[in-house]
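re: ur question from earlier - yeah i can do the single chain one, its not a big deal. heres the input i used so u can compare w yours
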Amino acid sequence: MNDILPILLPILAALVVLGALIPVLMKTRKNITNYPGKRDANDPVVPGAGGGTLLEDRPAPVRERVSPDDANVTADVEGLETVEVPDDVAGLETVPVETPLPVAGRLIRLRERLVKSNNILGKGLLALLSADKIDENVWDEVEETLLLADLGTEPTLQLVDALRERVKVLGTRSPEQVKALLREELVKLVDPTMDRSLRVERHADKPAVVLVVGVNGVGKTTTVGKLARVLVAEDKDVLLGAADTFRAAAAEQLATWGQRVGVPTVKSDVDGADPASVAYEAVKAGIDQEVDVVMIDTAGRLQNKTGLMDELGKVKRVIEKLAEVDEVLLVLDATTGQNGLNQARVFAEVVNITGIVLTKLDGTAKGGIVVAIQKSLGVPVKLIGLGEGADDLAPFDAENFVDAILN
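and the output i got, formated as tokens:
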């Protein structure tokens, strides 16, 4: 017995300690499970809790479906699923409301980033055109520099011809003269006369509707969230529609963006729900709630998938049963070059694109893509994104863009 005691005593002591720790561990686990901000599904919703402006803060939107007997009902509307809009449209977790930066502050910061990422083009051109003697070899290098910057063949030839003529007239050139003429010709190409304003003014009895389209991976949902911040900073009342029902967690991602600035999101809790139904309900809720702008995020359409592109057309047609689509913004990744142009052309065949949003214009992007896209589609670049930050989206300005390249 005396031989066993030394072995039993440590075991008994360990059991006593473990017994004392179990209640503490259970309490800790309970605290982790019920972290601050988590709400049980059966708990009452507190309007605006944690920052999200909930739909139930306003008069409840009408849930009736359009009658099949209505003479205005088309096959598109008749085929819609009924999408239940959750009372707590922003989700279970609470997210603190943030105050977006004013537009002026974003423009200054984005211009600084643009200078760092795109001035290789400007400095290269200035160095070539400032040479004592400009011969055919120099012009070949100018042309190559522009093509490598994704300017496109036609705009490149147009710019080189204009520069040749002006350099010949100038004769002797100072660095200041070279920079001035290069700036003038680049500004002409980027075209400051294009209307780059966003059509986001509320109509007399309906909100402005913005449809955001683009392929997977270009930052489309993030762009919708960032644009919501821009509009909130301009004191607009915004509602988001999560019509990207195919990508896992896309609706939750959009709702979180909305919560950050107190913007409600209409979404379906059913995976793979009909995107047109969600878009329809979002616009309907926007009309009922008298908001200023409704923005619809769509699934990342693959341009070679005919069925998906047809569905995008259906989304737009269904929305137009309730309200006019004021803006169709195509989001493109600036680093994709000519592939981005091909995407743009296909989308233009399905929906009437009114503006381009260029994301990832920092890093490896080439500034010339702005010109190439506008020349190809005749559609202006309206917004640019230059980073991962929440406020790294700003209106595009032709002269500021060229100045950033040349400085």
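The longest helix spans residues 5-33. not sure if urs matches, ping me
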